[in-house]
Request: fold
Amino acid sequence: MEARNGGVWRMVMVLCVAASAVGVSCSKFDELVQPSWATDHIIYEGELLKLKLDNSSGAGFASKSKYLYGKVTAELKLVEGDSAGTVTAFYV
Reply:
């Protein structure tokens, strides 16, 4: 029984070393997404993507790849005291 546990322990160690050897690559945000409409309303700032909303249009973008899972957040800043009638939509 003791030898069997030692073999399992070695297997776990080998898997941990192999997993840590896998490199992580970084990409620019504009390499991962593509504008879907109103490209003049999209502003790239490094890791930040801004979608401009005005009285005539908004903007949209989509991922270039499909993913099994992920995290998406959105922050909306409306005009103070004058945001009545503003309609926002956030689809996932």
Observations:
- The radius of gyration is 23 Å.
- Strands lie at 33-37, 42-45, 48-51, 60-63.
- The chain has one domain: 27-92.
